[in-house]
Amino acid sequence: MQLQQFVTEVMEEIGGIVEPLEYALCSVLIPEPYTSYFQNRSEMLLAFDFEVAQENPEAEFVTFGSYILEQVLVILEKQAVSTLRFAEVERLEVGNSLKKISEFLLNEHGRIKIEEERPVLGIWAVFNYQLSYISDEKMEKTDQVWVNLLTGEISLTMKEEQNRIVYKQKPLYTYPVPVQIDLSKALSIATDFLKEQAEQEKNTESQSVAYKKDVMRITNYYMDLLAENEKRGRRAGLSEEKQKEIKAKSAAIELERDKQLQDIYNKYHEQTEIRLDNGILYFIPLLEFKVAIEFRSDHTQRILYYNPITKQFFERRVETAMV
Predict the structure, then answer these.
(1) For strand 271-295 and strand 84-87, is the pairing parallel, antiparallel, or unpaired?
(2) Are the C-beta atoms of 126 and 146 separated by less than 8 Å?
(3) Strand 153-154 relative to strand 25-29: parallel, antiparallel, unpaired?
(4) Does 57 share its domain with 101?
(5) Co-location of 290 and 158 in the same domain
(6) Total tally of structural domains belonging to the chain
(7) How distant is the alpha carbon of residue 281 from its chain centre?
(8) How confident is the model over 10-56, as pLDDT tens digits?
(9) Is residue 322 over pLDDT 80?
(10) Residue 50 burial (CB count, 10 A)
């Protein structure tokens, strides 16, 4: 979800009025119960692009970390407590860290050395979707996609282990976030992943075999009907009116055949509608390790994280050569 869309939807949800003025610029009327969140202002001009904000000095520039966005998140936190979740961990430590890192980097050649270790905050975006499968009937289900914002990757393990997360509604740690997060990109990754999954489910081998079988059954059935009708049309002594009647019936059979084939196609090639219901951000303390690997004349640095929820390491791919 784009930042502008996110903020304006929240404003409208609390009863505000949003009027788009131009690209990345809109006027917002804030309902009285919420003016205290914005320094008792009932009207604001919001800019969601740096250049637009410079061209409109009276506008508030809304970006990650800005006052306006922070206040919007405060409102969300009070209205929907599930929006921001801050994980609590008993101990943030790894015993025999060098040994475990070496096991994680088992396929790497060379000498491994830990150069730096520090606590940081990892962030996972959780997108909850409503999916509708439309064919000859409509079926609905919900699904959830976890995206690791440090790596920009789908996190199936965190989805599986989410029940192990103990969380609060207020921040518990002041650790730094080691990357610039991009929620819009994360949403795109999650949605594409869900679309790909839906396509794979539709295109299974068993469905393909069943579809071809049904098409052949319908085709052969109407082929026999047409052949029988055409046979009637070849009889001697038929009046012109009767011949027209038989041709009209053949046309009707073909139309019915095509309709049945389209229905079969729709049944096996269902349309999928994906709608985002809501999103959750999990803030989870991690241990960050900057690791140096020396192999012959090559010197590289890797960045690893230890996740106390899964008890596993993961890597952020920013491998750099060292002189």
Answers:
(1) parallel
(2) yes
(3) unpaired
(4) no
(5) yes
(6) 3
(7) 13
(8) 888 788 999 999 999 999 999 998 999 999 999 999 999 999 999 99
(9) no
(10) 11
One-letter amino acid at 26 equals C
Pick 82 or 130 by higher pLDDT.
Answer: 130
Q: Has residue 200 been placed in a domain?
A: no
- Sign of the dihedral through C-alpha 186, 191, 193, 194: positive
Tokens 């959780």 correspond to what residue?
A: 126
- Residue 198 domain-assigned? no
pTM: 0.59
Do residue 35 and residue 94 come from a single domain? no
Q: Which domain holds residue 148?
A: 86-186+277-321
Residue 97's Cβ-side half-sphere holds a number of Cα atoms within 13 Å equal to 19
- Contact between 123 and 149 (Cβ < 8 Å): yes
Say how far apart CA 85 and CA 281 lie, in whole Å: 6
Do 291 and 257 fall within a single domain?
no
What secondary structure, in 3-state letters, does the chain show?
A: CCHHHHHHHHHHHCCCEEEEEECCEEEEECCHHHHHHHCCCCEEEEECCHHHHHHCCCCEECCCCCHHHHHHHHHHHHHCCCCEEEECCCCCCCCCHHHHHHHHCCCCCCEEEEEEEEEEEEEEEEEEEEEEEECCCEEEEEEEEEEECCCCEECHHHHHHHHHCCEECCCCCCCCCCCCCCHHHHHHHHHHHHHHHHHHHHCCHHHHHHHHHHHHHHHHHHHHHHHHHHHHHCCCCCCHHHHHHHHHHHHHHHHHHHHHHHHHHHHHCCEEEEEEEEEEEEEEEEEEEEEEEEECCEEEEEEEEEECCCCEEEEEEEEEECC
Residues 261 and 285 in one domain: no
Return all residues near 297 (Cβ < 8 A) that are at least 6 apart: none
| In the predicted structure, residue 126 carries a pLDDT above the cut 90 | yes
Domain match, 290 and 162 both: yes
